[in-house]
Amino acid sequence: MLTSQRKQHILSVLRRDGNVVAKSLSEELGLSEDTIRRDLRELAGEGLLLRVHGGALPLAAAEADFAGRQQLAPDEKVAIGRAAARLVKPGQVVFIDGGTTAVQLARHLPANLRATVVTHSPSVAVELASHAGIEVVLIGGRLFRHSMVAVGSAAMAAISRIHADTYFMGVTGVHAEAGLTTGDLEEAEIKRALMGSAAETVVMASSEKIGAASAWVVNPVASAGTLLVSPQAPAAALVPLRRAGLAILRSDDADGGKAADTAGGASELSGAR
Known about the structure:
alpha/beta; Arc Repressor Mutant, subunit A; Rossmann fold; 2 domains; seven-stranded parallel beta sheet; 11 helices; 25% strand; disordered C terminus; DNA-binding; DNA-binding transcription factor activity; repressor; DNA binding
């Protein structure tokens, strides 16, 4: 088998199974593990997969820059943002992450809602500037232009002094084994701090993020309470996430006020700190 054929086969297995195990693939093809690992290194260098111990995972498409991410699953992000906005209750203090889905959340908060939004995203803050009932607390720090969010020690210190009801989190990848991931070390640290300062975390993820992974781990998937997805989310990819302990809430269910779908049944999202 030619090198190009092997690489296409590896990518085909990755799309089909959601992961590649070097040992299994070497046995299937009758090749050495060193050959498979070399192919994986080259494919990773081309930005086509993420190498992990023993094999590879799909690389998160959401690692594109902010402008590029606006073109990824725009209809899903609107639906997820609208559904997330319905989960914010009057009087709550909520963290809203940076990113394109978070902007949609801010955009769909009800006009009569009175609550406090804490965000490290200038884009989210600007979106809420004309919302009379929302008290906006903007966390400062060094601007990470890729995601248009504040990072660094100043942002970490500010987050540590706040207790929020819910953190609406954006990530580039949600994978049962790799966890909740993002493409930058400092951004991962900020997300981890926000999770630690909130009573619960709702992860907002469009389809291209489900089953994908980036290099920097925020936390295991079970550390978040709920994963909010669109009806287009691949059903097979959600199964291992349920097994890992995530409650799955579809955006159409959230709009209708239905409960989150968990491995052991249904549970309503808590609104209390």
